[in-house]
Amino acid sequence: MEDPKSKSDGRVERSRRAILDSTRDLLGDEGDIGSLTIEAVAAHSGVAKTTIYRHWRDKWELALDAVMIDMLPGFTNPVDVGDTRKELITFVNSVIKIWSTPPYGAAMQGLVSEIATQPELAREYRERVVDPRRDQLAPVIERGVQRGDLRPDTDVRLVHELLVGPILYRLLLSGGPLNRKLGTHLVEAVLDGFSPR
């Protein structure tokens, strides 16, 4: 006999997936969060508004989940390949790839001012996006130190900010290209800056 709890969990997960998929569909290539409404997501997903509000406080939290948190599995976890440079490039290029793919980059442009001005949204972003990505980077830095590619005092937080910050700057302000060349340049700069030699 099927466990009623597992049946309920399956239904909740299907609803959640429908809501997140619908949010991304409605954002489209332009990632226009300003025009997004909970009513539209409910109509598109076939899930009641009350169900959406049970899981997300507002459209900003929903959009954050749909375009940033839900995409975390899409980031490549840099496994040990015996080469610090390659591992750092894997890390940074996964950020470039996601943010240059609609609707993620455009939606991030819409989200960033809300993240900056809503403390609860900022906390959620840090805890569910920034911290897990920094945790993925930490073993790469540890291996780089052990190999002698990086100084023992290399700060994971600073390396993370130096790798991701310029990508965000290009996305939000300068409009420079987001491509693999950028990723390689950022990694070379970090390796030069933290080299023990």
CATH first level of the largest domain:
Mainly Alpha
Query: What is the count of helical runs?
Result: 9
Rg value: 19 Å
- Count all strands and give the number: 0
Give the structural class.
mainly alpha
Largest β-sheet summary: none
CATH architecture assignment name of the largest domain: Orthogonal Bundle
Indicate the CATH topology of the largest domain: Tetracycline Repressor, domain 2
Q: Termini, distance in Å?
A: 65 Å
- Number of discrete domains: 2
The chain-level mean pLDDT equals 89
Helical residue percent band: over 70%
3D shape = elongated
CATH H-level name of the largest domain... which superfamily? Tetracycline Repressor, domain 2
| Contiguous runs where pLDDT drops below 50 for at least 5 residues | none
> What is the oligomeric state here?
single chain
Summarize the structure.
This protein has 197 residues and is an all-alpha fold. It has helices spanning 4-27, 38-45, 49-55, 59-69, 84-99, 104-117, 119-147, 156-174, 180-194. It folds into two domains: 4-58, Homeodomain-like (Arc Repressor Mutant, subunit A, Orthogonal Bundle), CATH 1.10.10; 71-194, Orthogonal Bundle (Tetracycline Repressor, domain 2), CATH 1.10.357.
